[in-house]
Amino acid sequence: MAGQPLQVNFEDRGTMIVVTPMGEISYSEATSFRAVLKRAADLARPRIIIDLSRVDYMNSPGVATLVEALQNARRNRVRLILAGISPRVLAIFQIARLHTVFEIRDTLEAATGD
Amino acid sequence: MTTPLPNPSDTLPWTAGSRGTPSTCRQGYRVSERPHIRIEMQSNPLYLAGAREMISGVCRRLGFTEMCTSQIALAVDEALCNVMRHGYEKQTDRPIWVTLWPGPQGARPEIKIVIEDEAKQIEPDEIKGRDLEDVRPGGLGVHIIREVMDVAEYEKRQGSGMKLTMVKKQPDHDKPGGECSCS
Questions:
Q1: Superfamily covering domain A7-113
Q2: Which of B41, B42, B48 to mutate to test the interface with A (most CBs of A within 10 A)?
Q3: What is the pLDDT of residues B22-59, one digit of tens each?
Q4: Structural domain boundaries of chain A?
Q5: Residue B35 is inside which H or E element, if any?
Q6: Domains and CATH numbers, chain B
Q7: Residue B131: closest CA among chain A residues belongs to which residue?
Q8: CA proximity to B124, closest of B153, B86, B165, B159
Q9: Among B38-52, B97-111, B152-166, whose mean pLDDT is lowest?
């Protein structure tokens, strides 16, 4: 369902941060989502996992926040993994040819278990 | 002060024809000339989801596959975002018009969507997506629109603002519920 306001779960597991956005990440939500990702980066854990399994819609402002987070992670030698992307959201990454730039896992379990 | 939306038959890049009869655009897509839906919305991101849902609902009814429907809605969303962010520079009370024409009945699903605004005019040739090899935030919207739609043409409106004409036809090898070849 489109139009659901964004909520974000934030979990610090010690060696990794798991960020779970729920709803859509569009123009209106990108700013607050960026702030959450910055908070995750500031904790300087070796791994950040963004579980996108509960994101039903994303457009280019949402993708841009993830690209920015990836660039920050690479600068700080943090591993950033996207997990559980739906086909609909994955299609945007494919159109933007970013699906090969990100480390992507099918599920959160696969992302945390590597 | 808003300028009334011009009569689409005066301004759209279609060959001449009587109202309600099929005509052909420059790219050869045949659609009914008279708009079936025309809405005016304010440039407020609050209404993006509603615009997407409207587009999605119409595309499903026209017979587009679910993936194609979501990609057409994405293209419209990106276009509206660009008007709000860059055209109107985040002013939230400026007008945007969205006009829809379905393709002929009985043929493969087809839709033409025109988005107009009163934002600052820029040269259409300057509207470019960024180089995808350059991985950085931003600049993806125009690329997504052009990748997803069969036609995406920017032009200046008469008087003020910009106009984006987009056309999408369901690829014939798509299966209902299957993957759209747009991407």
A1: STAS domain (3.30.750.24)
A2: B48
A3: 444 444 445 557 799 999 999 999 999 999 999 999 99
A4: 7-113
A5: none
A6: 23-169 (3.30.565.10)
A7: A96
A8: B153
A9: B97-111
Computed over every residue of chain B, the mean pLDDT equals 81
User: What span, in angstroms and rounded, lies between the C-alpha atoms of A2 and A56?
Assistant: 7
Where in B37-150 does DSSP place strands (E)? Answer: 37-42, 95-102, 110-117
B119 touches chain A (CB under 8 A): no
Q: What are the tokens at A17?
A: 């941060």
Using CA atoms, how far apart are residues A78 and B10, in angstroms rounded to an integer?
56
| Nearest chain B CA: its distance from A13 CA (Å) | 28
Q: What is the ipTM of this complex?
A: 0.85
DSSP A107: S
Residue B16's pLDDT is 32
Instruction: Give B176→chain A minimum CA distance, Å.
Output: 15
A48 contacts A19 by C-beta, under 8 angstroms = yes
> Do B16 and B23 meet the contact criterion of CB atoms below 8 Å apart?
yes
Q: Is A75 on the interface with B (CB under 8 A)?
A: no
Phi, psi of B68 (to 5 degrees): -65, -40
